[in-house]
Amino acid sequence: NGLWQNISFLGKRDVKAPDYAFAPASEKLGIKFDNDINNAPFAKINDELKITNEQTINFDKAINTLDYINNEFVASSKWDVAFLDNNFSVKEGFELDPYFSASIDPIIGIIPYMNDKFILMGSNKSFLRFAKNPNASEEDIAKQYADFVKGNDKFKGQGEGLGRGRLDTVRAKFNHVASMSTDGNYLYLATVPNNKDAKTFVISKVSLKDRVLSGEFTPKANLKEGKTLGDLYVTSMTFKDGEIYALSKNHNVIAVIDPVKEEVVKTIAFPSSITNARSIFFKDGKINILSYQDGANKLYTLN
Known about the structure:
By secondary structure, the chain is mainly beta. The chain has one domain: Lipocalin. The chain contains 2 helices and 23 strands. The strands form 5 sheets. Strands 1-20-19-18-17 form a 5-stranded mixed sheet, with no helix packed on it. A hairpin with a 2-residue loop joins β4 and β5. The chain starts with about 25 loop residues before the first helix and ends with a strand.
């Protein structure tokens, strides 16, 4: 038996699961994470953020994604999703049933969709379009049971403009994604390196209208000799003023990407005391970074 344990029949597909807040994977992936901006692949760092505020979010799980959507926080950990008020008290939430229909790997991002809906994405590029369902009828609650282990009385994943699906990518086919953002017309995903491929970094652009791939690119960037964007480990992205802010927990750097030029137009360092950056978003015009470190969910405001 010992003879066979290291032989893989999946070949290129034998890709280990990505690094999550609730399940670190550095060893399996063969990636050594550090918080040193000097090890970032970029030839030049344009800007440096300083922490102006730090708070601990009392949430009973390691938060893997946090965003601020329609005046409330939306957090996720594995298959749990919670909507929080401005004091981080849970207002409502659900637990996804990952195995119904298109299996969804742990959640790597949640974005607003249409006027009152959301899309959650798993690291395997399977997704669910869902909505809040505050006045659910008994019949509806029974119908929504398919998508949720808990919360089918408050949320819906079945119905008009809702449901599961899987995104088809070409260049990103053999890579997990660990982040998602949207400009309102498209959603953007970014790959993370893995045990089979430490060099690839691809942004996939998908139309929200029909969830069909509209383009994929590796951004042009001014890099140090011998370095690739695969040195990044992008755990979160946010969109502002026509640019994608891609947060790398590795080397504590934010790559600002212009999706039209397909280019990294700016690089920003953030403090090395933020050791496990998981989420980036703008609130009141300021950058916020969530890090799960020392067993706590820490939210930093930076300037």
